[in-house]
Amino acid sequence: MMEPEQEIEQLREQVRFHLHRYHVLDDPEIADVEFDLLFDRLVELENANPDLVVPDSPTQRVGAEPSTEFDEVVHAIPMLSLDKCVSGDEIKAWQDRCVRILGEDILSYVCEPKIDGVAVSLLYEDGGLVRAATRGNGEVGEDITSNVRTIDQVPLRLLGVDVPRSIEIRGEIYMPLAGFHAYNARAMKSGEKTVVNPRNGAAGSLRQLDPGVTAQRPLSVFCYAMGRCSDDFRPRTHADVLEAFRKWGCCVNPRVEVVEGCEACIVYIERLAQERASLGYEIDGVVLKANDFSAQERLGSVTRKPRWAMAFKYPAEEVTTIITGVEFQVGRTGAITPVAKLDPVFVGGVTVSNATLHNMDEIARLGIRVGDAVIVHRAGDVIPQVVGVVESRRPAGARRIPIPRKCPACGTVLEKIGDEVVVRCPSGMTCVAQRKEAIEHFASRSGMDIEGLGDKLIDQLVDQELVKTPADLYQLRGEDLTELDRMGAKSSANLLESIRKSCDTTLARFIHALGIREVGEATAIALAERFGDLEPLMAATLDELTEVEDVGPIVAGNLRSFFDNSDNNEIVLALVAAGVCWPVTDGLVNVPCAGETWVLTGTLESMSRGEARTRLRNLGAKVAGSVSPNTTRVVAGPGAGAKLARAEVLEVPVLSETDFLAFLRNHEGA
What we know:
DNA repair, NAD_DNA_ligase_OB, 37% helix, DNA replication, metal-binding, 5-stranded antiparallel sheet, DNA ligase (NAD(+))
């Protein structure tokens, strides 16, 4: 029988291999269910052998605690910016300068799509990812290691046996267009903030203090350059570097080409311009680099920019059209989103007839009026947005856009809470628009998972007043449904069976299905684990709620407001009366560390931080990322720094790893 250590290492290699095939090569060799079996077995073995868990295990992508700030990282080799050009003549002039310095007639170039994302530095030591940093000002960036580790296309360990002892790999983290659109669709449906474009989405995701949030964002990476490197890797050309990256499991843009002479560069630029609408990600140009490293060294840099590289920028595609009106849509949480209606215009390969204006502040910032000629820009030629007003063409009859004071769906006076940029309808499910969105969310796959209950059917059920709350779904009869469009006897029976099956659920699913603001799937799971049943959750105080992981004052307030509302309570009780049920557990109320807040700092030698957090949470503790006067205890291992110093200043009890292990032995199973 194979020893656990040997089986774990074998499983890690298999999982890394298949992750590479899936996320980087887009060519999986096994079915998802087979991969899940491998991954689950690895998790099982690591849980049983916590001393064998290592940071670069595929199971450790997410697990770091939320940060209060990002540490600075000084780049050993500055991440330089590039000179820019916008024409073929400028490319020829650049090559002429290079030829003059080098004394060569024709140069070999590497042509790469210029990804519109966020530059990142990935440092690998002995093949393992030890640090990821932003470009910052080129000299100093920020440590975003915990966030970058959550990106599937970033290898936690480089593949192969010829990996350098130390290498810095540079790349661009971006948000693919499919992921961007899906993220914004979910955000708009739930009344949450959307992102303006994929680049902003990538940048905002990487600056999340909680890696768990970043893990939910659709991010990818292309690796394109080498920074500092140990002397056991000495490539001659930039193309050699990219080939090594591919071999090590890094994702390199498949459209990178090596060409000879500037005319070939121009051909590449023109060809890529024709393809950019179908790439699946935003680019704003092409990067040209001298391929030979000896040529790069001789060309050198000037004013912090390399002479051996140039960024060709595509002109932004902008057109002018007329804004004919603005509609205000109501989301599930009552958020009001303005949508600009435009005279249809063809831009960047698609016909655009409307564009989201995000919020009221954007209308004020742009100064838009109905009837204005507006500039429509496809950011990266993909995301249409109104970026300005041609005031010189403003007609005499242009009308200011009235900011709505009442909900366009139900007429309730709108509210703006605190510093929120959105205004909301406070009516909840008495608002017909919110009612439809709430029922759709309730029935969704991540909610009660009622198969066959789509938005068009929900519209009919609500419009005909057959359903006013989610609880009414459980009172539907066959004769109610067969009267609706496209609902025969069989489809009606199937839907009723799906509704019946949804009664047997979990507490976490039920909490998420209720649609409480800011309570996503992860928070619902944490609440279910903490309280065990609905009744103690509904009765929990603000202080008790904020003891739950991921629940801060805002989320706690949203929970309390929801359960303090008599209409909501009636719906919950009606759902329970209709037969909705879940397994009840003891929760984590009567446990040794209930109400306590712990902080981990430094390195633990006997277990991973992930295991330490899990064991503390099982004892009822909240594990925080920073030390405060509310901290109960700090566990300090070797390398503890600022958190330990702050604990000493605040006189918070500090446990060594030995003390911590003794504490666990005394309290686990108690």
